[in-house]
Amino acid sequence: MTGALRVMVVDDHPMWRDAVARDLEDAGHEVVAATGEGRQALRVAAAVRPDMVVLDLRLPDLPGVEVARGLAAADPPPRVLVLSASGEHEDVLEAVKAGASGYLVKSAGREEFLDAVRRTAEGEPVFTPGLAGLVLGEYRRLATQRPVDDGPRLTDRETEVLRLVAKGLSYRQIAERLVLSHRTVQNHVQNTLNKLHLHNRVQLVRYAIERGLDQA
Predict the structure, then answer these.
(1) Structural domain of residue 57, as residue ranges?
(2) pLDDT-based confidence at 144, cuts 50/70/90?
(3) Is residue 76 reached through a cis peptide bond, with omega within 30 degrees of 0 on the bond before it?
(4) Which of 73, 119, 136, 182 is most open to solvent, judged by the fewest CB atoms within 10 Å of its CB?
């Protein structure tokens, strides 16, 4: 998913919400809704069906994690980029487990935020520097606690791409490593998501780590 996006902004601070919406619109995206309440966000998202939701975790009526979980249950689910003042590890892990595709702290600059929006739209897991390792480490810990089934049959190339995804490489890095186009890598990832009935690359990383592909 590239180009202009249909984005909903969920944040209970009006000035911050307006600033985020303005940055998105200045970058060419369409802000289809903006709200400061979690329950309203779920109702509105079901009506306007945004491509992406920029979500704060601290909301007055419903925790942002619950909003992310509700959004992840939609068909199709929007990408969810958490933009929060909190960099606490527990908040990051809970958001990712609830279905967030990325997590950025509010100290990020405008360009870093817009780059995170673009990369999240392309299916990449995007985290404030230092948090990606935390998420991967948690997935590895969880992988030791559950049995692993064989799962659907992937092609050799899909498995090769999945192995590099599990190691935390971006699409561009994978394309360079395998001498493929950026689009071809995206297609392999999307095919794998479809086969495994997963919704985003964060879930794909978890699947791969559970099968030890990050150690291969």
Answers:
(1) 6-129
(2) low
(3) yes
(4) 73
Structural domain includes residue 60: yes
pLDDT in tens, 91-133: 888 888 888 888 899 988 999 999 999 988 887 778 877 666 6
Q: What is the pLDDT of residues 19-32, one digit of tens each?
A: 999 999 999 999 99
Say whether pTM exceeds 0.85.
no
Residues 125 and 161 both lie in one domain: no
DSSP letter (8 states) at residue 154: P
Residue 150 pLDDT > 80: no
Bridge-based pairing state of the strands 79-84 and 6-10: unpaired
Average pLDDT over all residues of the chain: 84
Q: Domain total for the chain?
A: 2
CA atoms within 13 A on the CB side of 78: 28
- Alpha-carbon separation of residue 166 from 45, 131, 215 (angstroms): 30, 15, 9
Distance CA 53, CA 7 (A): 6
- Strand pairing of 6-10 and 102-105? unpaired
Q: What gap in Å lies between CA 99 and CA 26, rounded to an integer?
A: 27
List the CATH number of the domain containing 175. 1.10.10.10
Task: Take residue 82 and report the two structure tokens written for it.
Answer: 């958490």
